[in-house]
Design a protein that fits this description.
Elements: E1 3-7, H1 11-22, E2 28-33, E3 37-39, H2 44-49, E4 58-60, H3 61-67, E5 70-74, E6 77-81, E7 86-89, E8 94-96, E9 99-102, E10 107-108, E11 120-122, H4 126-142, E12 147-151, H5 155-170, E13 177-182, H6 193-205, E14 209-212, E15 215-217, E16 221-224, E17 229-231, E18 234-237, E19 241-242, E20 260-262, E21 274-276, E22 281-283, H7 292-311, E23 325-329, E24 335-339, E25 342-346, H8 347-374
Parallel strand pairs: 1-2, 1-9, 2-5, 9-21, 11-18, 12-13, 12-18, 13-14, 20-22
Antiparallel strand pairs: 3-4, 6-7, 7-8, 10-19, 15-16, 16-17, 23-24, 24-25
Helix pairs in contact: 1-3, 1-7, 3-8
């Protein structure tokens, strides 16, 4: 029997599960993921700010897997032998595959911050972050002059800084402060100047200090490339991503950074029975930013192509839009819209973002409800 292994429970893999639930392929489908839940990253800042419960922004993969007829294995992928079509798991198990769908994401690059030790909290994996955040919020409420330093000036770092500041303010944390450290190039690279201007103005308005310098972890906090040192009770690392180290020995074709190289159909350029989507891969034909937006929109293409490869049918290409819409949460129920050179902000943008996020969760919770009703 044809065995399809879905490695990782990322955003794109949701489309694969939903498609399998609608087909009767007679295959051995296996989903491998370290957690029964996928946390939707788009709603994480809203959870930190207190606008959502954890159940609002996480998807239970168990009923989705059951509806898709997929076996579920809770483990981490630690290796792939593409030549032998074999995958290795953290529990010592090995599984052979006929087809492989990779959506394991990327890892936070902590190489410059790891000296900070227990003060350091990486944004990835999200499961670990949501487990630790309540303790940080509690410590900030109990301690005078608690200082949180967020390292990373991309969308994730900016949104986390806004969300943490709002959480501290609403929880009446005693003079707790939030500092954001971006690179020398500033915040929100790749976004229009109007978006950056709006974000900088709001950072200043909300009392979030912004530094533009390289940060290196120390035992007490971070040292900046401009010569300043910042004491920190906690350092959230929303820094650049890097591919899983085990990919280097997989035998798959990789780019210079170590991401899986895929074509327009999100198929490995070296092994046609391997497909990948999300942060674990890089397109060989175009420059495609690592973004949850592309993981979501590439999902249906990934699902179609996995099944088309089994049946010998024509594959589809994922053609990203020229401009992607980003809605950046700013703490309270307020957000900044970024779309090419266009930008806007306000509570209405938050309501727009909230509608989009809840619609995504509703769509991906449909099979959960159907499975529960059947049970």
């Amino acid at each position: 029997m044809y065995r399809l292994i879905m490695a990782g429970g990322g955003h794109a893999q949701l489309s694969v599960l939903k498609t399998l639930a609608q087909k009767s392929l007679g295959i051995d489908a296996v989903l491998i993921t370290p957690s029964p839940y996928q946390i939707y990253s788009g709603m994480l800042p809203g959870w930190i700010a207190g606008h959502y419960s954890l159940s609002d922004c996480r998807i239970d993969l168990r009923p989705l897997a059951a509806s898709a007829g997929a076996r579920l294995i809770f483990a981490q992928v630690v290796g792939i032998d593409a030549q032998r079509c074999r995958i290795s798991l953290s529990d010592g198990m090995h599984l052979d595959y006929d087809g492989l769908s990779l959506d394991v994401g990327s890892e936070a690059d902590l190489s410059l911050l790891e000296v900070a030790g227990e003060r350091l909290l990486p944004i990835k994996p999200l499961g670990n972050f949501v487990q630790r955040w309540p303790a940080i919020l509690n410590a900030a409420s109990q301690q005078d002059h608690y200082r949180l330093v967020v390292v990373g000036g991309g969308a994730a770092g900016v949104e986390l800084a806004f969300a943490a500041q709002y959480a501290f303010a609403t929880q009446r944390c005693k003079q707790a402060s939030v500092v954001l450290v971006a690179s020398e190039g500033g915040i929100l690279p790749g976004h229009a100047s109007g978006v950056k201007h709006r974000a900088r103005a709001l950072l200043e308005q909300r009392g979030i200090t912004l530094y533009q310098a390289q940060a290196v972890g120390t035992l007490e906090g971070v040292a900046l490339s401009n010569g300043q040192s910042l004491l920190a009770d906690c350092i959230i690392a929303a820094t650049g991503a890097r591919p899983p180290a085990w990919l280097r020995n997989s035998g798959l074709a990789l780019d210079e950074q170590g991401y899986v190289l895929v074509d327009a159909q999100h198929r490995s350029i070296s092994h046609p029975n391997v497909f990948a989507a999300g942060d674990v891969c890089m397109r060989s034909d175009i420059q495609l930013a690592h973004s949850g937006v592309h993981a979501v929109f590439a999902g249906p293409v990934l699902a179609h192509n996995l099944i088309a490869a089994i049946n010998g049918h024509t594959l589809e290409s994922y053609r990203p839009r020229k401009k992607s819409l980003y809605l950046l949460a700013t703490g309270p129920k307020h957000a900044i819209a970024s779309w090419g050179v266009f930008s806007a902000q306000g509570h209405w943008v938050w309501r727009w973002k909230d509608w989009i996020d809840r619609r995504f969760m509703h769509k991906n919770g449909t099979l959960n409800r159907l499975h529960n009703e059947a049970a």
